[in-house]
Amino acid sequence: MLRIQENMQILSNLTSKFPTFLLTGIPGLESVHAWISIPFCCLYAIALSGNSMILFVIITQQSLHEPMYYFLSMLSAADLGLAISTMSTTLGILWFDATEVNLDTCIIQMFFLHGFTFIESGVLVAMAFDRYVAICDPLRYTTILTNSRIIQMSLLMIIRSVVLIVPLLLLLKPLYFCRENVLSHSYCYHPDVIKLACSDTQANSICGLIDLILTTGVDTPCIILSYILIIRCVLSIASPEERHKVFSTCVSHIGAVAIFYIPMMSLSLVHRYGPSAPKVVHSMMANIYLLFPPVLNPIIYSVKTKQIRKAILSLLLAKQTELFV
């Protein structure tokens, strides 16, 4: 049945101006997709509820209206966007075997997927700058990170994301697809799509490289530089207890950086240097890349940030009290 579907797919792409693609679930485990959907549903539920909870407590709790928590709310919003942008196709495959997607739908999904990825990368840089100012120049913290400046920074992240992603996606429209258009993941991923094109993709590759340089290539050195300066400031503190206390405020952010960049770079390396790798490796790396940050970030910040933990607990206790009254 799958072979017939793929043959019809090839014929469609040869005769239609609007190609369609076949998304991939978990290769080799198609017969148990319904069971696999259970942990996926749990992960999506954790991602949606955890990030929504953090957004809600930051918005409603006056004590959390500070720069650090504003940036955390941006991170939660970006994580929500990442989770929602792929949830429909991933669960659609696992529940209903809905694998077909057309190019326009693919482009819309990639706009949100890559857009929120670029925004999250920018937010992590802003959070690193926030930690640098708080630790190395605490007396000027409130004058440097004013509300208006935070709004400007957030607008800059959104504008950068849109300016970089729109040309990248518009370059997909003229491409000619003439083969079996089976994607490696349960969602549309730009390197995965252009790999299937039969026409020249040099412009797409150059645009993708420019986007990579202007996001990861800029953001990663900025985060590293921030932590080099932070470490230098922390080492100048005489008391070991004070050093530990100051540096512990960075642990959550370091964890967020690690769970965002490591899966992303691993997926890029798999696409670049691992074409012969088993399909299940591509699929697992793609799901880890998308689900790890939205699932783990709320857990990390809830556990490691005392103010967030207290706000969430007080909210849950208040709701519980209302139920019993």
From TrEMBL:
> Could you identify this protein by its name?
Olfactory receptor
Q: Which residues form a coiled coil?
A: none
Please give the family membership noted in the entry.
Belongs to the G-protein coupled receptor 1 family.
Q: Name one GO cellular component term.
A: plasma membrane
* CDD domains in alphabetical order: 7tmA_OR51-like
**Compartments, as annotated in UniProt:** Cell membrane; Membrane
Q: Has UniProt tagged this entry with the keyword Oxidoreductase?
A: no
For this protein, the record's InterPro entries field holds:
GPCR_Rhodpsn (IPR000276), GPCR_Rhodpsn_7TM (IPR017452), Olfact_rcpt (IPR000725), OR51/52/56-like (IPR050402)
